[in-house]
Amino acid sequence: QQSVKCWVHLFSFLYCRRHSLWQHLSLPLFSNIMHFFILATSTTSSALKGAIQLGIGYTVGNLTSKPDRDVLMQDFYVVESVFLPSEGSNLTPAHHYPDFRFKTYAPLAFRYFRDLFGIKPDDYLYSLVNEPLIELVNPGASGSLFYLTSDDEFIIKTVQHKEAKFLQRLLPGYYMNLNQNPRTLLPKFYGLYCIQSGGINIRLVVMNNVLPRSVKMHYKYDLKGSTYKRRASRKEREKACPTYKDLDFQDMHEEGLYFDAETYNNLMKTLQRDCRVLESFKIMDYSLLLGVHVLDHREGGEQGQAGGDGRRPVAQRVLYSTAMESIQGDGKAAEALTTDDTMGGIPARTHKDEKLLIYLGIIDILQSYRFIKKLEHSWKALVYDGDSVSVHRPGFYASRFLKFMSTRVFRKTQPIRFSPSKRTRTSIPALKSCSQEILSSQADERNEEDRRDRLVGARSLASLDGQGTQNKSLTDQHLCQGSGGGIGRS
């Protein structure tokens, strides 16, 4: 045990040297690094998965006995704790894991969140408890561990102490936002838990799964809208399923991804609304996780990482869980578009007319613009271009994020216009709609009538001029005769 602690301290020192110390310096740093290092072994990771399933099964099952009621403000700050010894007790079952304490944060509030998305307690327990959890082998840069449920619905992520505390403070506002906008690309939190064992605290959050394993992701991107160090490392590129960044996206998709006008407008409205929410909570440094499935690359027997037929059980599907459902405003339209052909993705195309399915969601929203982040931005702004770094004040970060998404990543397809070839351009007349033909015929008739009126008017004017000249000569003749007779009589 002493040797393990020495290795942990050495790993902590090297970790701080590798990364910026002032970025990661916090009180729970060493405990988080310790649990990350210890959980790297398979035996401890297996014990952790078993403890997670046992604790969630007990707390959710116990919650079903409580009556349903409206969520009150104090419900967001309730923390329930239960001790689960390995030999069992009058309330808890026996197990073969080390003794541990399991904490549940805001159980009634999270039960409301699950009800809002149509998650029944039995389905929640079946996904998280009855089937084994799948550990993802490609964790993020934060060092967190990720576990995925077998049905592809939920993902469990280990979070740091400060992130768990921030989520607790965020819950009341998060509750109000979900009431108003259940269709969102923001993370959907279904539970917040903590496992205490041997002096180590492991905090867990249950969220929606953005990228389904049943669909092969040919490209995966983590986009922030910044350019400073926003290129995947060589080590990342060597992975089987690398996660690329902003500069990589611009190199690989220089023209962006094209959507039809309605889908593009719905997508941008959803992103704008979500960014306003994040800005109001002073949240920054979030990312858009973007998965691209190329339909033209799909073969007859190709399946995703999980295999199977690529379909989720209909009875267990979570409301607003797919990318298309998250941006659609009309429930009927979303139901019509979410078919086996789209597999929950958003149809898109490249500038080369390749057919794509897009899966996306906003991730890593538990970063607030506080002292450490302000210090990080100030330091990077002195060394590099302040507008290009990822860490920035929330207002600027949101506007830069939206500008990058609307101009570089997502683009609107233009309506297709008829353009005949040179060979048929002289032989094929221009196509007109019925209304255009009617309007053109009416215009021709009006032009013909105007031409006739002008001709008639010209003829009338000429006749009038001739009659006027003739009348004038006759009048002069009569005047001359009258004047001559008068002189003779006189």
From TrEMBL:
One of its GO terms (cellular component) is cytoplasm. Residues 466-480 have a biased composition (Polar residues). Residues 439-490 are annotated as: Disordered. GO terms for biological process: phosphatidylinositol phosphate biosynthetic process. It is found in: Cytoplasm. Residues 443-456 have a biased composition (Basic and acidic residues). It holds the Pfam family PIP5K. Keywords: ATP-binding, Cytoplasm, Kinase, Nucleotide-binding, Transferase. One of its GO terms (molecular function) is 1-phosphatidylinositol-4-phosphate 5-kinase activity. Transmembrane segments: none annotated. Residues 44-409 form the PIPK domain. InterPro entries: PInositol-4-P-4/5-kinase_C_sf, PInositol-4-P-4/5-kinase_core, PInositol-4-P-5-kinase_N, PInositol-4/5-P-5/4-kinase. This is Phosphatidylinositol-4-phosphate 5-kinase, type I, beta b. It comes from Oreochromis niloticus. The lineage of its organism: Eukaryota, Metazoa, Chordata, Craniata, Vertebrata.
